[in-house]
Amino acid sequence: MKAPFLQLEEERALALRWKNERDEKAMHELARAHMRLVIALAVRFRHYGLSVPDLIQEGHIGLMEAAARFEPEREVRFSTYATWWIRASMQDYILHNWSIVRGGTSSAQKALFFNFRRIRAKLSRGGGAQGNRELFSQIASAIGVSRSDVETMDARLSAPDLSLNAPPGDADRSSGADRVEFLVDDKPLPDELASLAIDSGRRADWLKEALTSLSERERRILSERRLVDEAATLETLGDRLGISKERVRQIECRAMEKLRLALTKRHMESAAEAMI
Q1: Distance set, CA 125 to CA 105, 119, 135, 139, 155 (Å)
Q2: Are 56 and 42 in contact (CB under 8 A)?
Q3: Same domain, yes or no, for 143 and 76?
Q4: Taking a C-beta distance cutoff of 8 angstroms, is the pair 33, 1 a contact?
Q5: Structure letter (DSSP) for residue 187
Q6: Other residues' Cβ atoms within 10 Å of the Cβ of residue 17
Q7: Residues 91, 114: one domain?
Q8: Are 4 and 14 in contact (CB under 8 A)?
């Protein structure tokens, strides 16, 4: 904070020494003279619950990056150029450390994260929005994101992270129950998955065996009508086989009935074998 302010010519001279002569001492002197800018920006981000010294360290990285990239011939003051790099470095640090749940890293998502509270307060004071849905729609329009993104961000900013290994609510740690134990898994149990795999394989074998009881034309019609993702129409099959679509429908019905009888017989035989 005691570093002297640089005049325009001093700033330009240091930048030229770094750019033309790669004088690292000049680059560090240029950066050191603007550390107060880093501190001022770090204080503005203190409300995100992170340590101000850590923010200053991250801002210093951005300041050094700005000093390394600065081009004095563009006639722009270094403080103006460095502000973007310092802010970007701090914002990346906040996004990666504010929550264990990673949010979006696109420019629109960053803008939503850092401007959500300010825009919401401004719209609420204006009294133009009636209810959260309309308010979220206005925020989404102002920032350029979807309303669902705004709703998700509102939920994230409304409550702190909760550990799944902590007891639910006010429950005593000695009870041994953690939040993770109350999560519901909708997937089938392992024994159900094993049974499903075995039964699926058995049914596939039965169907393959039952199809041998059909004629070649019956198998073709049934395959193209029932055993593919995009079933052929009756008219299309009729044109291919040289018969009417009504005849195709009759053959399909007869083939389905023969399949049903064959599968029923095979099921009864399997049940009888299991009882022996």
Answers
A1: 29, 10, 11, 14, 21
A2: yes
A3: no
A4: no
A5: S
A6: 18
A7: no
A8: no
User: Both tokens of residue 152?
Assistant: 């998700």
pLDDT at 244 over 60: yes
* Whether this model's pTM surpasses 0.85: no
Number of structural domains found in the chain: 3
Other CB atoms within 10 Å distance of the CB of residue 252:
18
Is residue 266 situated within a structural domain? yes
Dist. CA 138–CA 145, nearest whole Å: 10
pLDDT at 159: 64
| Domain with 92 in it | 8-97
- Residue for token pair 């270094």: 78
Mean pLDDT of 214-242: 88
Is there a single domain that holds both residue 70 and residue 148?
no
Closest CA to 11 of 61, 59, 60, 80: 80
In this prediction, what percent of the chain has a pLDDT beyond 90?
A: 20
